[in-house]
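Q: What would this chain look like folded?
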Amino acid sequence: MTDALTGGVSKGSALEDFRKARRRAIMENIMGQVTGNSTSLLSYDDVRRKLKAGSMAGKGTQEIPLDAIIGSVGRYSDFTRSFLPRRDDDFDRWTNVEIAATGLIGLPPISVYQVGDGYFVIDGNHRVSVAHQLNATTIEAHVTEVRTKVPLSKHDQLDDIVRKAEYADFLTRTQLDETRPESDFTTTVPGRYWILEAQIETHAHFIHKHEAETLAYPEAAIRWHDEIYLPVVESIWRRGMLRDFPQRTVTDFYIWIWQHRATLREQLGWDIEPEDALTDLSEYFGARLPKVVERLTGWAYDVVVSNETRSDQPDKDIILTEPRKHLFDKILVAVTGNQKGWHALDFAIRLGKLEMSKMRGLHISSDKDEAAHREQTRTEFERRCEVADITGELAIESGVPANEINERAKWSHLVVVPMSHPPTTGIISRLGTSGLRDLIRRCIRPILVVPDKVPTVERLLLAYDGSRKAKEALFIATYLAKRTNSSLVVLTVSETASSHDPNLVEDVRTYLSNHAVSALFVQDTGTVVPAILRTIESHDCGLTLMGGYGRNSVMGAVLGSSVDELLRHAQQPILICT
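A: My prediction, written as structure tokens:
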């Protein structure tokens, strides 16, 4: 039915359309409460203020998409996000607009501000509402563009505006949109930019303290970006962390890493580097069905064969492939608080000074230990590190020592323990589930076992049998020989002179030659441990390197191991590759 005078719909038909629109507005509000999505139009004044609006420019009259109109200058509370009317008393104005819109006269263009991809109605709210009711997709509008520091999307909700307002404040303070325009600091969670700003302030304080330079905030932001933010972000991109999380941003991950570092600090008592925290997060986020199955069946490890290497341990080749300047950047030291433990720490510090390592001490406290004893241990640990001018942190934990060390080994590149309880003889003791044997069998990092007396290391001994673990020992021996300018002795042992494998020695000789390391080669016959002890004594070797257990746990328990026997007799440090 049409109005005879105007050619548009009749007043009654327009009134019915208004009532339908009101019912839809009520349902839209209910669904918004159920889903948690806002059904309100955005206020232009709020958005303009929060996004730090700048200059304006007229863009003339053009057709704009209706679904990109997301707010209003003055009447944002009168309509829903899809411009359905919210007020019953608005029927007269609304129906007159529909009659005009469908009649011969038509309607003039609306006026809008354009902010990013979104539009805000200056004049013509009812025209937009009626156009939606008539299923139009575009509307003619006079457009004025408003430029802001942060772009606006037509899909943005109120929370998005809050987040973008925080981003705009961050850019205003730091000026990084001008000084480092290639970086995107967008986050998907509100209330996170204070973390970045706190880091900038901390970095500025660090620069002032160590470089005696006072920087203006934007200058400090540049240094923070280049020295702190960018290396971590590059690691995030390099590892492809965002592939499985397309809705998140690289700055989201950057902030999560620093939050994860704080959590790890609380859990471990150590300051974990961003790269290590990222590794931990990538392992967590990268968990798939095989890892889930391993976790579900992991109980069998402790119940059936507690000495077996766990299947979910990280790849032990990591020590050969990690791109770092020093091999042992971080050293975990078992700090017992007795003389044996201090010997082990002193030896670790000597190596750590050479490697510029961080000492991560771990003291396993028993229930009987008094608080005073724990503090004395901490004080002595810190004193020895300070005297040696080396960075050290001591964590105090309770539990089974081997278990606790194994849990924390992933955060270091080498584990140093005192020769407190070497494996004893007898099948019953070998079947035990704790102690040094258990530690060596399960640990994912090389273990350096230090005896009571710590000699000066001028000559290294590599006991080589060609096994995978022995090849890792060859790699470390080569590295240490070059790093310490120590001479190297390579020992191979065969049962008889006729059973000696010449390729074994040739492989080592080639490897060492490729790395410009010379060595003395010793070939011996008979049993392994006596041959090692003879070579240590005759060549005055201060450190022995070898592969770990070669047999599985059951066979090792029944037949014993050359590693166990050597630990019982050696008086020099032994580095065992696990």
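Residues 287-324, 427-434, 552-560 have pLDDT under 50 and may be disordered.
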